[in-house]
Structures are given as structure tokens and as C-alpha cells.
Amino acid sequence: MKTLRYAAAVVGALSAVGGLAIVASTPAEAWYCSARGSTGATGWGTSANLGYAKTIALRECAVRTPRGATCYIMYCR
Questions:
Q1: Residue ranges per domain, the chain?
Q2: Which secondary structure element, helix H or strand E, spans residue 31, and what is its range?
Q3: Closest CA relative to residue 35, chosen from 73, 77, 76
Q4: How far apart are CA 19 and CA 2, in angstroms?
Q5: What is the CA 63 to chain-centroid distance, rounded?
Q6: pLDDT by residue (tens digit) across 4-18?
Q7: Do 54 and 73 form a contact (C-beta atoms < 8 A)?
């Protein structure tokens, strides 16, 4: 009987932690970055991590930019 109560408590605690993780990473709290290339190509990225959002935007821009051209971050919000 005690084992069943302990298991139920563990499952409840894990559910609560999982619920907090979902709430903490909502799209409203994500960074959005935009990049533009010297040839007019664009790219954007979104992530909870600012550095990762910048990286995604630059990679998306680089795919659309000819070799030798440069992409720059225009803004992040």
C-alpha cells in the first residue's frame, strides 16, 4: 500500500514538473530574429535562446545567399 502511494506521489511530482516545462517554453517567450543578406536574401529564426535564434536566422539567410555574400542580423525581439 505504501509503495502504491509513493508511486502515485512520484508520478504526480513528475507531471507537475513536466507541466511547468511546457508553460515555461511558450512561443510568447521566444526570441525572434531576422537576418538580411547583402544580395537581398532574408532569413528568420525563433527560439527560447537568443544565440540559437540568431544562428537559425543566419543559416536560413545563408541558404538563400550566393557564395561570397554576407548575411547580417537586422533585429531580434
A1: 2-76
A2: strand 31-37
A3: 73
A4: 26
A5: 19
A6: 455 455 555 544 444
A7: yes
